[in-house]
């Protein structure tokens, strides 16, 4: 017979009937999913996947309260087989993008190891021309465990010697940019199961002011503008929300740059101001240059607002 699972197991061969007796546990029956980061394990459906509820904290590495002998094996690797669809804001992915950008990635981040597992990567041919057939699906095989579902688009991971950040996705757009957690503590048991992923979208807009006043049309010094970030409270990644700029380093405010007009994933963010900030990518400790007085704009790397809910 097929390998036994916690909710569907086979006994030894019955010689009288030439069969392997099958025991099927009903939905809600107690079982053991074999995961140290879950509690209250039950069969999700009759004879289906055994999975518990993720614990509030899941230790990284190995924190042992006791030990068991290694033994001589077998050393079995359990398998979770995932299938599902990827949607955006509850609707199928657009077949064509009006912009010339590309698709995105969906990861499952293992709670104990912190490693990202690719499970879907919807893509467009020629950067926006047409959705690649079948790429809007989850179709992956991985080890059972507790995972967070993470969405990634327009994300610079810091490999280019810059602090990690997410590019701003100007509105209107069919897809948001972001590096955010979509779902926390998803428990995957051994066996085939469905994992559907929906990427919600929010449009954030509004004027940018300084000290309660509109930005100056011209700067008296020859410095440049600044940046506003929305920093995800879960991933700590910086999402560009606005970047007021001046031509020729202070000559004239770039029209329309004194506004927030971006598409991103809903969540909890901090609003962070950045000007004159050296992020340490040049080999020095991060610091902020001094802005001599008088000046229309300050320098700084500072949190303006905390725990802002984007719906």
Describe the structure.
The chain is built from no helices and 29 strands. The chain is elongated. The chain is mostly beta strands and 311 residues long. The model has no long low-confidence stretch (mean pLDDT 90). Strands 13-14-22-21-26-29 form a six-stranded mixed β-sheet, with no helix packed on it. Strands 5, 6, 11, 16 and 17 form a five-stranded mixed β-sheet that branches. The chain has a four-stranded antiparallel β-sheet with strand order 8-7-12-15, with no helix packed on it. Helices cover 0% and strands 43% of the residues.
Strand order of the largest sheet: 13-14-22-21-26-29
Helical segment tally? 0
Distance between the termini: 50 Å
Oligomeric state of the chains present here: single chain
Overall pLDDT: 90
Task: Indicate the topology.
Blueprint: E1 8-10, E2 22-24, E3 38-43, E4 50-54, E5 80-88, E6 91-92, E7 105-110, E8 116-120, E9 124-125, E10 130-131, E11 137-142, E12 145-153, E13 155-156, E14 165-166, E15 178-188, E16 191-194, E17 197-199, E18 202-207, E19 209-210, E20 213-214, E21 227-232, E22 238-242, E23 246-247, E24 252-253, E25 259-264, E26 267-275, E27 277-278, E28 287-288, E29 300-310
Parallel strand pairs: 5-16, 5-17, 14-22
Antiparallel strand pairs: 1-2, 3-4, 5-6, 5-11, 7-8, 7-12, 9-10, 12-15, 13-14, 18-25, 19-20, 21-22, 21-26, 23-24, 26-29, 27-28
